[in-house]
Known about the structure:
The protein is 84% helix and 0% strand. It is built from 3 helices and no strands. The longest helix has 26 residues, at 44-69.
Amino acid sequence: xxxxxxxxLRTKSPDQLKDQLxxxxxxxxxxxxxxxxxxxENSDRxxxxxREIATVKTIMGEKARAGxxx
Length: 70
């Protein structure tokens, strides 16, 4: 399943990846506030969002390195 997510992300443009990264960071911010207020229902979502952020950043780095070497 993770490979399909990475494959989908690799088809996106750098601008789309930046937008997705921004959206994920906002979600992580909101989840942290929900946890602090005791309103967080799905604590596993925090882990999922952190991993998605890492995947997006990894793919952005791959694209940057590929663009620099080309």
